[in-house]
Amino acid sequence: MKPVTLLLLAFVLVYTASTKNDDRSRLKEIIDNVRMLLEKSTKFLNEMVPNEFDKIRCSKNGPQDFCIAEEILSGINYTQYGITNTEWRIVRILQQYRTNHSANCTVKQDEDEQQLSDLLKNLGCCAQSKYRHHKRSRRSADNIYEKFCESKN
Predict the structure, then answer these.
(1) Distance between CA 143 and CA 57 in Å, rounded?
(2) Fewest CB atoms within 10 A around its CB: which of 30, 84, 90, 97?
(3) Which helix (H) or strand (E) is 79 found in, with range?
(4) In the chain, which residues have pLDDT < 70?
(5) Nearest to 70 by CA among 44, 86, 50
């Protein structure tokens, strides 16, 4: 009985450690991709998208709002703005992040909208907040990625 218990304990420890590292790397990828996208054309960043993403709720909970961001961003025709598949990795990264978290969501198509740039800034701020929770990431998150959360949105 002891070997089975020890084997099960080892499996749980290894699995949870790899999930945390995967989350950490996915959050950094989200931050990096959002940062790159925010440097794109004004026409692209001014596109209107549903205003369903809540950065405060996301900072507290996370996965559901990452799901909402994924749903909103997957509906954007990024190629019409000259953005390549290589540059538009954000949806794939959000999908990979969500594989470690069970989150289902629906985006309401109401009249409340925001600019894409605001959604990306809020997503970056939330990812930064989550990234900060990882011990090895605190200093780099504070120093490198502080610009997302400066706005009062």
Answers:
(1) 23
(2) 84
(3) none
(4) 1-21, 134-148, 150-153
(5) 50
Q: Is 50 helix (H, G, I), strand (E, B) or coil?
A: strand
Q: Identify the structural domains of the chain with CATH numbers, from first to last.
A: 23-150 (1.20.1250)
d(CA 88, CA 74): 10
Tokens of 89: 């990795």
Q: Is 48 helix (H, G, I), strand (E, B) or coil?
A: strand
pTM as predicted: 0.77
The structure tokens listed for 50 are: 């549903």
Q: Closest Cα partner for 30 from 150, 119, 142, 135?
A: 119
Residue 1: what residue type? M
